[in-house]
Amino acid sequence: MFEKLLERRATSFQSVFASGGDMVKGTLAGVTVDADSALTINAVFSAISLYADSVSTLPLDCFIRRDGELYPFRQGGGAPAWVQNPDVDFVGYTAFYSSVIVSLMLEGNAFVRVYSNSSGEVVNLVVLNPTDVEVKRNALGRLTFTITSTKEELSSENIVHVV
Q: Please, which residues bridge with residue 113 across strands?
């Protein structure tokens, strides 16, 4: 029973997990792979592109759940304008949703900046670079999002964080 504790193996925990050090150092092959370098591999680029393009072109609709039942967001159906055309800089919704999906696949997170008018209606949504957003909790325990390039600090009312 205790023989396994004294057993020696050719592969150790440290050799499998980057010599037990900081995982950012790289791999045993000596090659660091990040989102940019992964996209230079044709198979990775093609797979991400195929998935993002396929999902982003699916039809959209909006519903509200009340007492466990789904109801159309608006009488007669139809999604709000900010769902059909979320970013005024993109034509249509496919490029916007494709950007969200690519961020999720490469970084594991997607951050969308919400712009609203004085009455609180959403007027524009912008996909942010996930590596440019830092997430922290403030003294009250609420999430705050800092855009590192501009040092702008935003609350969860201004950012949609997709994990």
A: 126, 159
Domain that holds residue 51: 15-162
Sheet holding 159-162, edge to edge: 122-128, 110-116, 159-162
What tokens does 147 get? 């855009």
For residue 52, with 0-12 CB atoms within 10 Å meaning exposed, 13-18 middle and 19 or more buried, which class applies?
buried
CATH assignment at residue 129: 3.40.140
Question: In degrees to the nearest 10, what's the CA dihedral of 20, 25, 28, 34?
Answer: 130
pLDDT tens by residue, 99-117: 999 999 999 999 999 999 9
b/e 125-149 (16+ beta carbons within 10 angstroms → b): bbbbebbebeeeeeeeeeeebebee
| 3-class SS string, 91-102 | CCCHHHHHHHHH
Token pair listed for 152: 């702008």
Check if the beta carbon of residue 56 is closer than 8 Å to that of residue 104.
no
